[in-house]
Amino acid sequence: MSLIVQKFGGTSVADVEKIRSAARKAIRAQRQGHQVVMVVSAMGKNTDRLLKLAGEVSKTPSAREMDMLLSTGEQVSVALVAMAINELGSEAVSLTGGQIGMHTDSSFSKARIQSISTERIERLLNDGKIVVAAGFQGIDDDLNITTLGRGGSDTTAVALAAVLKADACEIYTDVDGVYTTDPRLLPEARRVDVISYDEMLELASLGAGVMHNRSIEFAKKFGVPIHVRSSFSDAEGTMIVTESESTSAPVGGAAMTPDEARVTVLGVPDVPGKSLQLFSAIGDKKIAVDMVVQNVGSEGRADVSFTVPRDELTTTLEAINGVIEQVGASGVTHDEDVSKVSVVGSNMASQTGVASKMFRALADAGVNIQMITTSEIKISALVPRSQASDALRAVHQAFLLHERPADAKSWDEIKADRQPSDDVAMMVQRLRDDALEALTLTGISVLDRQARVTLFGVPDNQGIAADIFETIGAAGIMVDMIVQGFDGHDGSTSVSFTVAAENLPESLTVAEEIAKRHGMRDVQGGGSVAKVTVSGIGLRSHTSVALVLFQELAQSNVNVEMIGTSELQVNAVIDETHAAKAQKGLEKVFADSLGGC
Ligand code: ASP
Ligand code: MG
User: Which stretches make up the ACT domain (predicted)?
Assistant: First the structure.
């Protein structure tokens, strides 16, 4: 018999009528012959209300009591949903997180799932019951109630689908699927039939609010197909699976993160371990740092720029000021009126000209790019906040995201084409079943025979990045990583990129031509560098990965020249002579997480 997990978000159980309608959906599935597990969120804005209430009683409520309080929202809705089902003539049993055996660690308000015991659910299902499970909550070893973090019911649903080996995991919500970008920001955004886990992970971490990040990590790890659909219509929705909708379109989605701030630490001594000190201080405050760019230093010093969410700027600056002397940096500047615009696409890695196309679109829209970072499936540009909407529209248009790609396939077509593969099954087998959400790395690799080219004193004007990468592309040179960062000297920027070592002489010639054209200060090329890559699932929700990587490199005295991070990889460009040592060191520190064992 097939088993379906159906998750209903807060808006889908906001009132009695909606609760009944959710109940009917489950009953309908049951009558079609499926076993049904429902996962339900708190009604409407109940969680927000509880949070507010707590705030009125205490400014610093204990995290344990907070979870005790917030978990009640879901307890209300599962009971009501079960009653509604019983009233409509089927049999249902509601269960709390503890009762479904959802065991987590003890990090209240952001607990990670360790294991789930399925016996009770299976017994009830075999008895013909619909199981209505409370989302978002679990229990720790001491039976304390824990919660998984805001939006965590998605993760409950996908995790249950994984351990119950469900045939489908349906996420009922107030939107009718996943769009190429947020349709509230851009009306021409298009609903996609299919999107890949990787694309969805990137988009979710950029703030595309459709699904809880960790639920996608779970789905990818266990190969659970997710079906996002509207609870208010029978529209088709979107499938989140391994494959993308198209195998050729370079970009699958775009996102804009409006409220960012840029911080630049000036004159950081360019020796191993210095940026680590900075980022450890910020990491200690649990602030997620993004778009890290280390300007290749002049006179043995570098300017390190990065972005943080705007509302964490003050805390970030405090953290930096606390270590600035120890680090030996000369100062810090910031800009809090910036936004991040990104494009994401699983097919990007195998294509040339994607970055220059994005930069050209921004230039033509009159948008000045302040910083750039790239990873294998994402390109991000930092732009003035006043231009962010124009920037998003321009890139959405340039990559024709409003049109269905000519080779786009439906989920049914993709499924029919699938080769039986045991990759996923093998991965799952290697996962310890008492550490379901533990960090899972899939490999540590080194790409050697690379070269780095840096343009210094790049004027901070629109159109320069487009010109640089169009010119390089026209010369037939394939560029891998790109970073553009702030230059503390004079408010100009510097642009670095990597190419295969054999392309270095030609790249330098082209770069010098460009530098002359725009009156740039200098061009430098570093002959023998290597790119070290740690790959895995959901690297950014385990924030320690990048930190551990830099710690290890610093300890082995390896200087990091460029950095690029994504959900899938953390990349560091280092001196080639250190590559083997770096790889060995990393394999050792990450031994516990490799292959999930
Ligand atoms: N009720 C929780 C929240 O509002 C969990 C969820 O809705 O997924 O964050
Ligand atoms: Mg919710």
Answer: 263-346, 453-537
